[in-house]
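Incident log, entry 3
Record: Xanthine dehydrogenase family protein molybdopterin-binding subunit (764 residues)
Problem: checksum mismatch between cached and fresh output.
Input:
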Amino acid sequence: MMSVKKQKGAALSLNRRDFLVGSFGGAVIMAFAPLSGALSASAQESIENKSFAPTMWFEITNTGEVVINIAKAEMGQHVGTSLARMIADELGADWNQVSINHVDTDPKWGVMITGGSWSVSTSYRPLSQAGAAGRIALIEEAGKLLSVAPSECDTENGFVVTPKGNMSFSDVVTKGSFNRVFSKEELANMPLKSKDKYKIIGSSTKALDIPKKTNGTAEYGIDVEIDGMVYARPVLPPTRYGSEVVSIDDSEAKKLPGYLGYELLKDPSKVLQGWVSVIAKDYPTAIKAGDLIKVKYKAGPTAKVSEQDIFAEGDRQIKDVKEGLLFVNEGDVGKVFKKTPANIEATYRTHTVMHYALEPLNAVALLKDGIWHIHAGNQWPSLAVTNLASALGVDESHVVVHQYYLGGGFGRKLAGDYMLPAALTAKQIGKPVKCVFTRQDDSRFDLVRSASVSRLQASLGDKGKGGLTALDHAFSAGWPTMSTPAAMVDNIDKKGKIDPFASSGADHWYSIDNHRVRTINNGLAHRTFMPGYLRAVGPGWITWGLESFIDEVAHQLEIDPLEFRLSLLDGKGKQAGRHPESVGGASRLKNTLEVLKKNIQYGNQLPADEGIGVALSFGQERTMPTWIATAAHVKVDRTTGKIELKKISIVVDAGIIVHPDGALAQLEGGVLWGISMALYEHTEFEKGQVRDVNLNTYTPLRMNDVPEISIELVESGEMPVGLGEPGVVGVAPAIGNAVFQAVGVRLRELPMKSQHVLDSLAQG
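Fresh output:
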């Protein structure tokens, strides 16, 4: 709570962009106003009674400690450190006096979501403004205490620096009295520091979350223990949707000491269909009971669906011009194709990919004083609250999600579906329940990255740089956002809703006069499983086809693929970008490729059967572009077909780099994941379920196959953008293009297998 002065003659008017600085309990609270545009009568009354607590972003205690609240999930990316740097640098804090606090769900925090590589880019300006507002409030108060003009003061390393000496934040907070409101107009015009004035942003300083992770005090969702709780393990039906339980025989499970029974879960939200929850006093017993209980089902309608069925549906859709919706429509592709029919065409495929986070899915649920408390690590708590309330049949105000560190998320934990078994079991038995999925359960319940099919067609004119006259691109996959309809968006001609996360990447930064993109939801995939967000989402498979095809076009036009890309990046029209998120547009992407060209000494002679391929990518969306040029150096064994990846080199322009160590780690992780999906990991659907349910058959990249990795970050003063996912995107097409350079075969399926190479070589 804070003390906020009521303006004479009128109630204090606050909106969600106002920022308040007030004293409470020996501390100074810095906060944005509530999310509602106008305050309710009760809120107005609480202001008058000096008991109003708006959205509190950070506070300075009377000991000078700066405590910054983090409404983002920590899953290994050091997000709290990055966000805290923004506030601390503008505030002028001592980094050694900064700590972070990950918050639970509460409407005052707004929408809580960690995904899309958005955290830094979307938080940079508001949190910097909040820090700057705090700096101004401290300076003003210190000025009053020392009778010094604010214009003569500044903050540095936890002190207000004045002509009459320095005052620590602690002294200012202890001796001062804060009552300050910054309007949204003041915030918008808040003077922020230039890059050369940063002391914390961009420097090498400790990550605030690491000590807890190294000394064992970090608490993950799976660590939660509640007095009186029991354990549950789910028994999953044969299909995601439509399966019905016919009978349950737990006679063998009853022989286990500690077995407490089972519950057939009733989910009015229909997320869980045909689920049985096995209950025990401890988790080992729950695991054994889950294996012993016999559940007979009437299987759902997708019980015989295979990966090939999903591919067949995609193949049909991309050839049917009536399927899908327009995502890009520049110029007149149809007119060009009538005059000059497409003279190059290719179809690209990607197989189903899974998450396999180190920490299996888990949640603890209990009802206390009419409020449902759910303990779990989650990337989108705001959505989880909505889904839990629907399943439990309560208002959202009666659900609180308590946030914990995530032992890996990668997009799987954007959904809160794995919290429902714990919540519904707890509701049905009237006790706190901890539900933990085994690795096999986790895999069968995964929200996988859908298999995809893409077709690209191009009309080519004269040989050389200007030869690409029209490009038509159609792709089909399961859409993850279909399960969150409010996040779907209108397509360009407003004839329907599309999933932006399953379409981004096709709206690239190449200047092509005639360019058409059709995005299609694979309905069979969507009926068979719940498609999920997986690191890089749509660009992870869309760019595979696009950047491979750009190479194909270049070779058809008899021009070097790297030089061809440079020729398409003219930065004109919409490709010039816009302020503030994509200033420079295609010109910045072009620069990364030019730097990469120099770094890898492109064009030098290589040994036989070795090649270097390149690919360009721009992160997640045009509104949050992370410009990346990627090169892969491979050696191909013509006898075995084995692709040996010798080196990956990337050049990245991500604007201001807030947390350099974290940025490097994010990019390294992204590159490794990209290699894994390009050459190794995948599964297939068999009889309506994924084939591979553990790491004995699901084979991601192993340590002995990790190549040399070179990463260069371009110096930039532009707005910072995301790095969690973009490193993934260009890896697969760069490898595929390198294979072509090495042995002259074009691979069009992920993962790229040795047998694909041998088959292509045999075909000549």
